[in-house]
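Proteins fold reproducibly. Take a sample protein:
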Amino acid sequence: MKFRPSFQVLRSRIRKGSDYLNLDVWIPPLWAQIPRVRVGGRLVNVLWILPVVFVILVLGITISRPFYETSWFQAFLAQYPGIPDQAEVHTGFPLWLRVLHYLNLFFMAFIIRSGIQILADHPRLYWNRDCTPDTDWFRFQRPVPMDRVWTSKDDSVTIPKWLGIPGIRHTVGLARWWHFSINLLWVLTGVAFYVLLFATDQWQRLVPTSWEVFPNAFSVVVQYWSLHFPHEETWTRYNGLQQLTYFFTVFIVAPLQILTGLLQGPAIANKLGWLGRPVNRQRARSLHFFGLLWFLFFILVHVTLVFITGARENLNGMFAGLNSDTSWMGVWIFCVAMAVLIGAWYFATPFTIKHARLVQNVGKWVVGPLKHGAELWNPIVQYSEADISPRHWVNGREPDSDEYQTLRENDFEDYELSVGGLVENPRVFSYADLKAMPKQEQITEHFCIQGWSGVAKWGGVPMRHILDIVKPTPQARYAVFYSFAEGAAGGIYYDVHNLRNMTHELTLLAYEMNGKPLPILHGAPLRLRVENELGFKLVKWIRAIEFVSEYRDLGSGQGGYNEDHEFYGNRMSI
């Protein structure tokens, strides 16, 4: 029995998505667990950190106070009072520095919120590339159940609305638009900061120019820990500990956060050759998480010291540009600035829920060109059979239609792939036809938008071979892949790819996985492999391919099912 639905029929089965987050039909909440860290093979509740930190602080004070009084340290203190002997800054805290300081704080708040929301979609961190269950070193989710199919969507968790953006389970699409868009603004702010920093004398406050910064930093640590607050000259110079901390944060951690973020995207990681192996996606995620922890630690300590070492004078300098401990101007400006931040923080979640499509469209406008440009960075990385992951996470709803079940029962012998639309030679390929074509095998890494990854060996027909046969017309700009499966909200699953990706040497219509027929859960009889795109675009259970000039009349016009319903992006190379 043959199944050949027309493209018009397939299009009619596409269901439009809502322009807002319809919580009535969204995936049900599943609250996150208290985070746990693997120590010596055992998962330990992170709340144990609190008493441990308290004990360390108390012990430090207990040891530092008598140490401070020793003659040796008093002599050391006389030689290294805490502030290195280097040139002073004579411009105080100029307006540009105060504005960029606040913008950095504002952007960082939403980068952190959206980053936590992204992590909640695969709430596990690993050092291995494969994401094998129970090899995570950090998690805030239950163990993966082994007695049933557990998709990565099942594994996502809910976090509070005040913490995440939008704080709804499995809203990684919207969180990514927030994260990437605000990150771009943060990077531009950082570039402006770097330029102005070295165009003025302000760099002398942050950049050590003498090895004396290290003994002075040690001196400051002992002074703080012994509760003898050191003399401050922040208007003209930072002490040694401040210099090292700011230098590390501004010139090391911030660039590493950008790099480790980019290394999580397939178009970047799959181009870097040998570098993509030691710094694989999961190690990049883990390092990115440590960068987050450092920023949180820095903000906590920075804000605490601002208030306990002379709040009015510090706020006057940071927010009013005044070297004064009597004026209240800095305090008032600070209060207004914090009110703006708190207001934006409060309204971010309800705004995102109500105007989800707007958030998606603005995100595409802000960072879309960068994602499109990354596609041009040709992915070339392949792996050896020894690198194949022992377990591949799964996602998507397995087809349950009668026609698919009939095909499955007959081992897909009656399967046919219809290829048409804007082509010179529309064709219908049988399963036997596809297997008779030149076969290509490749061992590549899969990058899921939720954060997991895995390496597998794929075998099948190069898409460029199909193109040579059907010959797309000059008007054809996109290939639409229709699936036998339905999406989570009903309606046929589909996705759209540009023609350039279809001609790439690693773009494959796979009917084998790891040397065996493609498993049902991974897309049998046929699935797409495009190695510079995230996994949701690699359509499984392929039913037909239509070449079109435009896709705005399909569904909600976003270029795919998850794009329409879950607010993902059509070009997802990062």
